[in-house]
Amino acid sequence: MNKYELALVVNAKIEDDTRAAVVEKAKEYVTRNGGTITEVEEWGKKKLAYEIKKMTDGFFYFIQFDAEASAPALIEQKVRIMDNVLRFLCVRKDEA
User: Fold this and answer.
1) Residue 71: how many CA atoms within 13 Å on its side-chain side?
2) What does the alpha-carbon distance between residue 91 and residue 69 come to, in Å, rounded to a whole number?
3) How far apart are CA 63 and CA 56, in angstroms?
4) Which of 33, 40, 73, 94 has a CA between 20 and 30 Å from the CA of residue 26?
5) Nearest alpha-carbon partner for 4 in 62, 66, 60
6) Using an 8 Å Cβ cutoff, are 84 and 15 in contact?
């Protein structure tokens, strides 16, 4: 099992419960593809460096998980088509 981190930038103009549902859906994709979530960090609302889809703010979430090497590609495939996710990035964390 490798350690990964999924970073999400979620639309800041949606309701709190809708935003929570988006994060839950992303977590569900991780577990459905054999991942084990170790931590979820919420950084809150931050100003974006540049406009994305005419929005200047976004909510940042970081989901750490353990999974097999094939899981990140499958997770990215699902997250890519999610509504209200402005940007995402899944990276492998170092074993340091």
Assistant:
1) 26
2) 11
3) 23
4) 94
5) 66
6) no
Taking alpha carbons only, the member of 47, 41, 12 closest to residue 26 is 41
Rounded CA-CA distance 47/32 in Å is: 32
Structure tokens at 53: 């889809």
| Residue found under tokens 């991780």 | 30
67 is written with which tokens?
Answer: 């999974």
User: Hey, what are 17's tokens?
Assistant: 């419960």
pLDDT tens-digit series, residues 53-73: 999 999 999 999 999 999 999
Q: Residue for token digits 């054999």?
A: 34
Count of CB atoms situated within 10 Å of the CB of 21: 13
Q: At what angle do helices 71-80 and 16-32 cross, to 10 degrees?
A: 150
